[in-house]
Amino acid sequence: MKSSRTISIVGVHAEGEVGDVIVGGVLDPVHCKSMYEKLVYFRDQADHVRQLLMQEPRGRVSQCMNMILAPCDPRADAAFLTLESDEYPPMSGGNTIATTTVLLETGMVEMKEPVTKLNLDTAAGLISVTAECENGKCKNVAFDNVPSFAYVLDHEVEVPGMGVIPVDIAWGGMHYVLVDAASIGLKISNEYGTQLAQMGERIKKAVQNSYIPVHPDNSAIRGVSILEFTEPLQEGPESNSKTAVNATVVSPGRFDRCPCGTGTSARMAVLYARGQLREGQLFRHRSIIGTEFVCQILSTTKVGEYTAVLPRVKGRAWLTGFRQSTLDPTDPFPSGFRVGDHWHIPSTC
Q1: CA separation for the pair 157, 179 (Å, rounded)
Q2: Does residue 240 surpass a pLDDT of 50?
Q3: What pLDDT does residue 347 have?
Q4: Measured between alpha carbons, how far is 243 from 124 in angstroms, rounded to an integer?
Q5: pLDDT tens-digit profile of 159-202?
Q6: Of residues 86, 87, 89, the one with CA closest to residue 349
Q7: In this predicted model, what pLDDT tens digit does every residue of 296-308 receive, in sequence order?
C-alpha cells in the first residue's frame, strides 16, 4: 500500500468522551516558544492534520483528538494540544485525563505506583496532574486546572426566535456560555438532545454577537466558543457535598459525552460567585450519559479584576486500541468531508 502520510494513534475515552491521542507521524513545530504559539501554528498553518483525522471518512463528529508534543515549559513532563471539530481549545479537562492515561499506560512517561505526579504543558498554561495507579493501570486522574472565573452573571441575550435568555459567561480553560436548561423549557435528557444541541448553537451565536470576553492574561484568547446547559445544584451523597448535571454542546452541535472538565471548572467558578459552592466542598458533576467527575475548589486567586477559583477535577479513562491512519495519494478527500445528517451544517454554508 502506498501512503503519503502515516499517523500513529492510541484510542482512548474519558468517562465516555473519545479523546484519541496522536503519538507519532506529526512533526513538532520546535520554532514555537510556547504551547499557545504551537496552537496558533497548527490552527493557521498546519490545520490539514486536524481536518484529515477529525472529519469523515477517518473521523466523526462525536470525538476529540490530542497531539503529544514537546513541552515549552521546562517544568513540564510532556505537552499536548487538543483538536476538536471546529477549533483548538486552549485547555480540555476530559482530554487531560485521556492524554495522561495514554502517556502512563504506554510508558511514554514512567508510571509510579501507587501515585504518579506529573506536569503537562498546555496552551492555557501548566497543569499539575496526579494519577492513582495499580498493576500498570491508571485508576483515576486528577488535574489542577487553570484559574477559572465568571465574567458576568445573568447576562441577557436576545436570541432570534427564542426571545431574551439569561446566561452566565465564564472561563474554565475555554470561554463558556452557561444556560439553565429550564430557562428554555427543556431538561437535560437524551429525549431533548436534538433541541438542546440546536438551541445551544443558536444561543451561543447570539452571545458571540453581543458579548466578547477577553482573557486578562492573553488578549488573543477572546470570545465564547462553547455552551453548557445546566440543571439546579442538588445535595450530594456525602455530608455537605453537592451534585449537578450538565450537557456541554460542542460545535458544530453535539454533546460532550463526559462531564467536561473545563465546563466543570467554569461552572464551579459561577457557583462560587453565586455563593452556592465553597472552597474544599466536594462537587460531583455528571454528564448526559451519567458519568461523573469528582471535583473541588482548592483555593481562590485573582486574574486581572476577577476573583478566580483553583479547581481540581478527577475522572477516569480507558484505552480502546491502537491504529495507524494513512493517506493514499489518490484519495479524493485529503482534508475529509462533512455531511449534514450528523454535522449540523448551518444553512449559510
Answers
A1: 11
A2: yes
A3: 57
A4: 27
A5: 999 999 999 999 999 999 999 999 999 999 999 999 999 999 99
A6: 86
A7: 999 999 999 999 9
Per DSSP bridges, beta strands 254-255 and 283-286 are unpaired
Q: CA–CA separation, 145 vs 77, rounded Å?
A: 16
Q: Do 254 and 344 form a contact (C-beta atoms < 8 A)?
A: yes
Neighbours of 301 (CB within 10 A): 12
Q: What pTM value is reported for the model? A: 0.95
Phi, psi of 66 (to 5 degrees): -135, 145
Cis bond upstream, residue 252 (ω within 30): yes
The DSSP annotation for 247-308 comes to: EEEETTTEE-SS--HHHHHHHHHHHHHTTSS-BT--EEEE-TTS-EEEEEEEEEEEETTEEE
Decide: 79 and 126 in contact? Cβ < 8 Å: no
Active site residues: 92
State the burial class of residue 191 (Cβ atoms within 10 Å of its Cβ: 0-12, 13-18, 19+). Answer: exposed
